Amino acid sequence: MLFRGAIDNQGYQWLFSSKKAELSHYLLKDFFKFNKPIWLTNLVQDMKVEILTKNENSNIQREIISKLRDYIEYKNLEPGDKLPSERMLTERFQVSRSNIREAIQKLEFYGILKSRPQSGTFIANIGRVAMSGMLDDILRLEDPDFKSLVETRILLELKTVKLAALRRTDEDLEKLKDALDAYETKVLNGESAVEEDLLFHLAIAKASKNVTMNTFMLIITPEIITNFE
Length: 229
Fold this sequence. Notes:
The protein is mainly alpha-helical. It has helices at residues 18-21, 28-31, 38-74, 86-93, 97-109, 128-140, 146-167, 170-188, 194-207, 211-227, and strands spanning 113-116, 120-123. Helix 3 (38-74) packs across helix 5 (97-109) and helix 8 runs antiparallel to helix 9. The protein is elongated, with a radius of gyration of 22 Å.
C-alpha cells in the first residue's frame, strides 16, 4: 500500500502503520465493486438531472468560447486589449449574462483572460499564436471519466504524499490520523466509507502545503463522486 511507516522531521517516510494502511483503499471503484452503498446509489441518481443540466451548460460554454475566439480574431485583438462588457457580449451572443460570466471565468482559469475590478476583462499577455492554440485545445476538451479522474489523483498524490511528509504540522498529522481512523471504523463495521476515504486524500493534499495541488484535489474529488457508478 502507498501509506506505510511514520512521518518524521528528517524527511519523508511512509505515513501510517501497515495495519491501518491495509484499510486505506486507493481506488474507490475497486472497493465498492461488489458493495455499492445505498446512499451512494441514491446520490448518483439524484445527480443525473444535475449532470444533464451540466452537459447542456457545457455546450453553451463551448459555443460562447468559440464566438469569443472568432471575435478576438475578427477584431485583431492583442494581449492587453479589453473585451466588451458582459452586457454587450450578452446582447451580441444572445445568451444570458451568467453564461457569459461563466465562460469568462473558465478562460480566466486557463490563463487566457484577466479580469480587473472596476476595469473590465482583458486578454492575457500570452501571445496571439499561443492564445489561439489554447482556445482550440479548450474547445476540444472532453468531460473527464472516472478512470481518468482516479489516474489524475494517483499521479498528484505520488508527489503530494512526499510533500505532506516533509511539510506536515502536528495538527495536520492529527487530522490525517483522525480521517484514517474514521475510515477504519466504517470499514470494520461493514459501512460505506467513501466520504472518509475522500476526506483522507484531501487531508494529505492540505498537509502538502502546496496550494495548487490542494486546489486540483478539491476540483477532481467531487467529479470522482459524480462519475462513480
